Amino acid sequence: MPPSPLPSRIALYAELLLNIRTVTLFASLRTTQTRDTRAELSADGSRITVSHEGETATIRLPIKAKSGGDAALALPAQPASKELTLRLQIQEQDGSDFLAGAHAEARKANLVPWDGASLNAMDAVEIHCKACGSVLLPAEKLREWRDLPNENWAEMMDFWHCHKPDEHHLHDHTHESAIEKKGYAAGNRLVAVQGVGFVDLASLLVAEEDCQGGESVPLHPESLTCKSCNHPIGATDRTANSLRLWKWNISIRPSTSNSFSPSTYSTQKWVSARLLSLIENTGARKFHIHSPLPSSSPDSTNPPSIPSLLLWVFTPDLLFSSSSSSSSSSSSTSSTSPSTPSYPDPSSFPTRAMKIFYQHQTYHAPQPGDRENVGVEEVSFPEDVHLELETVLQKSGALLPSGARTFREWRVGLLERFDVGEVRALDK
């Protein structure tokens, strides 16, 4: 077998900022550019090839650039550098609505798969463990899925309870029966209903009797793991007598289709969706990310502390492509190890993402007299999600040109997010 070719020492990265419709190409060279260093745009405007000292690297652009055929691009002549930057005019094909029209309007939404409507559209939904593929929730257990409102659903429940016009005329016992069937009641309390699943942005809430494949951990009864492989799948919710299955730890498929591979999404996209939801609801762009604190000893005088991340969502929406070799990330795939983050493949369609500035910090429970960090939202994720988030940010930073991997005291990384067309109907 002939030896594999050595990877090019030229690293290319391109990003499309959707709000200003500009494609910027970054090229990192091992040595300073020369007169023979060239950048050429393909005839169809979809790819750029950079040549330097006998080596070449090609990148597929996030969107086509204006081109009149194969053309050499003018590189900055002075000062000579190892880092090259080019800005390109974009070209939208006739009939395309990528940057305008319905497609662009759809892109403005925080797209999140597996809502109540899409799950109800299936004949029967079967929930699997993402790690091992075992069945957590058989299809025959649930007859209906209902969406919970946004982050403030608890505050909204009293309003619905008190102002629902079609129930004011009911007698007391009939009214109470209707409440039990709906799964919520006054006092901001969600009540699990056997045979009904509740859906929010990041989780599925089901009755304990319906989830046959999960079990609580003896030493941590609030944690829920898969009975088959012991991998975390969610948490117990005693206030609602329910189990909360994290969407990033499960896969879903119609039970009526044996040939349909389970649908699952990378953890980082669920994290992005959560952050985008917080941006919409609070206006914050900085988030202190941490896992739940461990229990402290009653005799301990020092509060427990854990590693955390301070995130700044610098660019909420961009498309990028990279010449760096990496494994392909797919929107909906068969179950894979949840501990293996996915990264964009340069040969695949450019990836939608957020640009994240981040710092490593330490988190501890707020103490009396602590100064409030105004403008920073506290966000808790399970420990496995926190660790994967840190890994994703570090590895995605390697896709950026070396000069763009830090900004003052911040490190820079990328978080993939859900895109139009990726959130497909599961019943098809």
TrEMBL record:
Q: Which GO terms describe its molecular function?
A: cyclin binding; ubiquitin conjugating enzyme binding; ubiquitin protein ligase activity
Under the cellular component aspect of Gene Ontology, which terms does the record hold? cytosol; nucleus; ubiquitin ligase complex
Q: Where is this region: Disordered?
A: 322-347
A single Gene Ontology biological process assigned to it is: protein monoubiquitination
Can you name this protein? Answer: Ubiquitin-conjugating enzyme E2-binding protein
**Which organism does this record belong to?**
Clohesyomyces aquaticus
